[in-house]
Fold this protein.
Amino acid sequence: MRQTRTKIKTLLENAAIDAQVLVKGWVRTKRGNKQVSFIALNDGSTIKNLQIVADPTHIAEDTIKKINTGACIAVQGKLTESQGSGQAVELQAEKIDILGEADPEKYPLQPKKHSLEFLREISHLRPRSNTFGAIYRMRHAMSYAVHKYFHDKGFFYVHTPIITGSDAEGAGEMFRVTTLDAQNPPLNKQGNVDFGEDFFGKETNLTVSGQLEGELAALALSDIYTFGPTFRAENSNTTRHLAEFWMIEPEMAFYDLQDNMDLAEDFLKYLVGYALKHCADDLEFLNQRAIDEDKNKKQSEQNSMTLLERLHFIIDNEFARITYTEAIDILKNSKPNKKKQFQFLIEAWGADLQSEHERFLVEKHFKKPVILYNYPKEIKAFYMRQNEDDKTVAAMDVLFPGIGEIIGGSQREERLDKLQKRIAEMNIEEEKLWWYLDTRKFGTTPHSGFGLGFERMMLFVTGMTNIRDVIPFPRTPQNAEF
Ligand code: ATP
Ligand code: MN
């Protein structure tokens, strides 16, 4: 009978001593002597390796010789209690097939400590490292948690377009989508490129947000969310920005800003709780990894809490909620502002907050996540609901330790006249938004929503510090390898 393969995770969880099993995976290490070899095998189902014991009475020496780090093998044998420390069970190999060899002279991922920079250069192989295996598995778990959270609350998942014809938001930071000949594009009478001749008969771009279309759905289905790829051609080479990232954007009819903040806080806590509950092994590894990394840092740059402590801290504490105006007061009178340690000094109301200010509020002042709300209308988008003071809009940003902004959201302007006025003030072409404005003409109602950058959340739950390390194949300026 053909034996079916067992995944290592299943095997370790239901270890049946004496069971005859078949496992397949990639060799992490091999050690031992002439009498016996110990092979650490990993198949990605868990961070844990299975120890394979191979001796020349069962396995040809020639085969054992070919089992090097990186090779892919299939092993049949009997599961036994392990003699050594470090694992409860091990597999006594009776038959080993080498599915794919890996030349030890050439395989780049040798079992030693590699820098994250080096691992980025071998992004095609880095999922075979403990760190990236953990990150890949956690990305999956967190994606599933996003869907579960909203599904359980009666939200509907809406697929908003990736190619968009609306450039109302993020003009200048968009990637153009075209089939026109770059060498020789058709020109109009003015000598400009004639996008009427382009595939869609107009200028199109990759989306920077699914929100506007999400609103259309919310004003029919009440509670919806999107979760898809998002593109920004911002040339900011930071550790928090990608040119291609994934965003989760819930949009809710009948929610005001308060409801919006409540949902955002509950959602973030749920995701963190889900990770703690369902990713324990990977988190334990990442926690220790971060502790080890800290040891090489200056005292002042070390984390005051471990990763696991930070995750528990999020769940156990209410987020602080303060207005933008209150935040400006705190920042103006703060030590780094007075001592001119901020790169951008806060002088007056109206200033756009930089990541250094956000992190000061979270890490130094409040020492917990902060929701800032009611921002000056000048620094926010046209669709945010205008407050009575005529100066601020009902915007909210959720700020997290180590990251800064993790969520940006708002109550939307549902009043047609106010919305049209703002669109005019901001020199946006109203005609292009005719379909968006229709929702304010027909059955408009208060509604709210926000955007959570999935990779920013991944930074937080994995304790990684560069956003390039929490997405399998990062897209950043000058980099689209793999
Ligand atoms: P930032 O000020 O950090 O650039 P933003 O104000 O441009 O953020 P929004 O337009 O509000 O961000 O987008 C919603 C969320 O999407 C942000 O809170 C963040 O989590 C995430 N996000 C925005 N830009 C990026 C990016 N380039 N890479 C990864 N995530 C991003
Ligand atoms: Mn931005």
